């Protein structure tokens, strides 16, 4: 199952790396490859929209459906 808290923690850790964009791309590829797990965690979208999953001064994670 998709772990949102773990995903946020991994993305935050990637910010400290030399190439954060490449690491974040890899981190995003995992849940995208298993959309059922993401839907189980975030729920089936009822309509198109943008949902803020996490926001800090240096990182924002959005669910765009």
Structural account:
This protein is α+β, with helices and mostly antiparallel strands. It has one domain (4-64). It contains 3 helices and 2 strands. It has helices at residues 4-14, 20-32, 35-42; strands spanning 50-56, 59-64. It has a two-stranded antiparallel ribbon. A hairpin with a 2-residue loop joins strand 1 (50-56) and strand 2 (59-64). Helix 1 packs antiparallel against helix 2 (20-32). The chain starts with a helix and ends with a strand.
Give a brief outline of the structure:
The protein has 65 residues and is an alpha+beta fold. The protein has helices at residues 4-14, 20-32, 35-42, and strands at 50-56, 59-64.
Secondary structure elements and pairings:
Elements: H1 4-14, H2 20-32, H3 35-42, E1 50-56, E2 59-64
Antiparallel strand pairs: 1-2
Helix pairs in contact: 1-2
- Into which percent range does the helicity of residues fall? 40-55%
Q: What's the domain count?
A: 1
Number of strands: 2
Instruction: Summarize the helix and strand pattern as letters.
Output: HHHEE
Secondary-structure-based class equals alpha+beta
Span from first to last CA?
19 Å
């Amino acid at each position: 199952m998709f772990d949102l808290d773990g995903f946020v923690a991994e993305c935050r850790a990637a910010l400290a790396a030399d190439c954060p964009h490449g690491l974040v791309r890899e981190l995003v590829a995992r849940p995208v490859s298993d959309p059922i797990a993401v839907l189980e965690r975030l729920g089936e979208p009822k309509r198109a929209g943008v949902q803020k999953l996490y926001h800090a001064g240096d990182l924002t994670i959005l669910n765009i459906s």
